[in-house]
Amino acid sequence: MQHPQITSQFIGDNLIYHIKHNKFEAKISRFGGHVLSFIPNGQSDVLWMSNSAVLDGSVAIRGGIPLCWPWFGAASGENAREPQHGYARILPWQFELESFDEQSVRLTATPIDTENKLAKFNLKLKLILVLDSHLNIQLQTTNISEKPVELSQAIHTYFDVNEIEPTQLFGLEGTDYLDKLQDNQQTQSGAISITEETDRVYLTNTPEVKLDSANHGVNIGGSGHDSMVVWNPWINKAKAMKDFDDLGYKHMICVEMANTQGLTVSAGDTVTLSQQISVL
Length: 280
Ligand code: BG6
Hints:
It is a single chain. The strands form three sheets. The chain has an eight-stranded antiparallel β-sheet with strand order 6-7-8-9-19-16-15-11, with no helix packed on it. By secondary structure, it is an all-beta fold. The chain has one helix and 19 strands. Strand 3 and strand 4 form a beta hairpin. Bound molecules: 6-O-phosphono-beta-D-glucopyranose (BG6).
């Protein structure tokens, strides 16, 4: 097969790759190691991107697939002054085209830590992207020290749902979740519908959920996770965020594979968190 067609474009200091292959089209940002867009052949974009997202590498990108690592959510303890969701989404990454054929393209990437932000965590990170008619994204973390290291992380995918009202997420019925807005634990009853601000950490390693929306059905699979996060900022929070369109909340839902329950990576070990996105 011919090389997949890969073009690139600078936005400020950031480089955006545009890949065209007979199975899909995708856009990937060097800043954040961030998938911006994924369009399987004959489908619309599976990923939502804010119209006011900043793509020049000056701030984290709103939409697509941010990578939260080496922690998910607000930093705490000795890292308390550090950025929400960690460093992976705000560092530049070095991408390699590892292999390709008529079926798929495999890319790997590692963060470029010019300011030495990551050294103290003793963790090495590698991103693996396999793109075909599905998108498989893997975050591989290796503990390069001689002591166990605690890690939390998320593959923070923004799914485009066209209209949020009829959208339903199946597969988490009966699952306990932490409601970050009410600061309590609850149990999911029935499928998930979004009718208000929603920020929940489902305590589950279930391997698959299904998102049904007006544009398409999407299977969201994963492994290596102990939680799934479901987030929609709804009206007021969307308005309060500079890089989130005021009405954007109507068109997206985040469904994130995550480790939030205290994952310990033993000395020398590698753990892999993955998410697999398949349009039905
Ligand atoms: C979600 C968190 O995963 O990400 C929310 O559960 C958070 O609490 C949201 O508001 C967006 O985070 P950020 O840092 O990208 O605005």
